[in-house]
Design goal:
The protein is α/β, with parallel strands linked by helices and about 300 residues long. It has helices spanning about 5-10, 10-15, 30-40, 45-60, 65-80, 110-125, 140-150, 165-175, 195-210, 230-240, 260-265, 290-295; strands at about 100-105, 130-135, 155-160, 180-185, 215-225, 245-250, 270-275, 285. The chain has 2 domains: about 5-85, SRP54, nucleotide-binding domain (Four Helix Bundle (Hemerythrin (Met), subunit A)), CATH 1.20.120; about 100-285, P-loop containing nucleotide triphosphate hydrolases (Rossmann fold, 3-Layer(aba) Sandwich). The protein is about 45% helix and about 15% strand. An 8-stranded mixed sheet has the order 3-2-4-1-5-6-7-8, sandwiched between helices. The longest helix has 17 residues, at about 195-210. The radius of gyration is 21 Å and the shape is elongated. Magnesium ion (MG) binds near residues 111, 135, 141, 185 and 188.
């Protein structure tokens, strides 16, 4: 499936919710309210929903306006708002050697899977990734990353269960002479567990000891299904650890596909990629045009 088909299919449920039907209707206050509700249901955020509904109402569309024209108008507005948050994360040449990427986030959000997908993308682009299984809390977590490393055929460093994660990261980076990009998978931590966040801060300090400029990217992985709760996660990780960008996973098949909009609006951080499935090829660059069209089924 091509990129555009893939993204359109992923956002089908959202676009069903965002069905804008103006045929036979007047674009009046009632229409605007209906539209606003639909946008809010798709998690686009209350402020944006209100603004967009007002813009449509003010636009004075003619009687001949089609549903598609209204959808395109909305998609263009969303595109303009999201364009600044696109990222060239997949394609850039790594300016540091090795480039160190730290992947963090709450339990089950998709960190490990995302690390594997990124390794696959970078390997395909000709790089030599090293995976670091810094989730030392669970043996299963290490096994999961080993499985992917073997499948993709990339290097991996893992420690013993319950080993000190920061120590493992230090050793891994110190001995990574052959690798030009290092992807560090960390244990999922609830944003309210300050002890675990402290450990993450320690990992970051250890990385800095080896390379003052690193980690070159700290990426927060969010589950696209969590809606408003994701904002609390961003607040905590942004303040306690610092992040350079966000990857939103599990956007395939959700009806809340608008969720990217309020995140960028509030936090103004780049969206480095979106997860559209469990497979290795299911991590896609965030393309604001394709996304804004897809959520309206265009
Ligand atoms: N549908 C879908 N599933 C995903 C996506 N990304 C990850 N998953 C699934 O979500 C589940 C959790 O993913 P993990 O990568 O293990 O999440 P994690 O953040 O590493 O979890 P912890 O290590 O427990 O904190 C797995 O079953 C993944 O296959 C996505 O984009 N779409
Ligand atoms: Mg994991």
């Amino acid at each position: 499936m091509g990129f555009l088909d893939k993204i359109k299919t992923a956002f089908q449920k959202t676009s069903e919710k965002l069905t804008v039907s103006i045929t036979g209707k007047k674009i009046d206050e009632n229409f605007a309210r209906e539209l606003e509700d639909a946008l809010i249901m798709a998690d686009i955020g209350v402020e944006t929903a209100t603004e967009l509904a007002k813009k449509v109402a003010d636009r004075k569309f003619s009687k001949e306006t089609t549903d598609l024209e209204v959808k395109q108008f909305l998609a263009d507005e969303i595109y303009a708002a999201l364009r600044p948050y696109e990222s060239d994360f997949f394609n850039r040449d790594f300016s540091h050697r090795p480039e160190i990427i730290l992947v963090i986030g709450v339990n089950g959000n998709g960190k490990t899977t995302t690390v594997a997908k990124l390794a696959n993308i970078f390997k395909t682009a000709g790089h030599r990734p090293l995976l670091v299984a810094a989730d030392t809390f669970r043996a299963a977590a290490v096994e999961q990353l080993k499985y992917w490393a073997e499948k993709i055929q990339v290097d991996i460093r893992a420690g013993k269960e319950k080993a000190d994660a920061a120590g493992l990261v230090y050793d891994a980076i110190s001995s990574a002479a052959d690798n030009d990009v290092i992807l560090i998978d960390t244990a999922g931590r609830m944003q309210n567990r300050s002890d675990l966040l402290d450990e993450l801060a320690k990992i970051k300090r250890v990385i800095k000891k080896l390379d003052e400029s690193a980690p070159h990217k700290t990426i927060l992985v969010l589950d696209g299904l969590t809606g408003q709760a994701a904002h609390n996660q961003v607040d905590v990780f942004l303040n306690k650890i610092g992040i350079d960008g966000i990857i939103v996973t599990k956007l395939d098949g959700t009806a809340k596909g608008g969720a990217i909009m309020p995140l960028t609006r509030k936090y103004k951080v780049p969206i480095m990629a979106i997860g559209l499935g469990e497979g290795l090829d299911d991590l896609k660059p965030f393309n604001a045009r394709a996304y804004s069209q897809a959520i309206f089924g265009i």
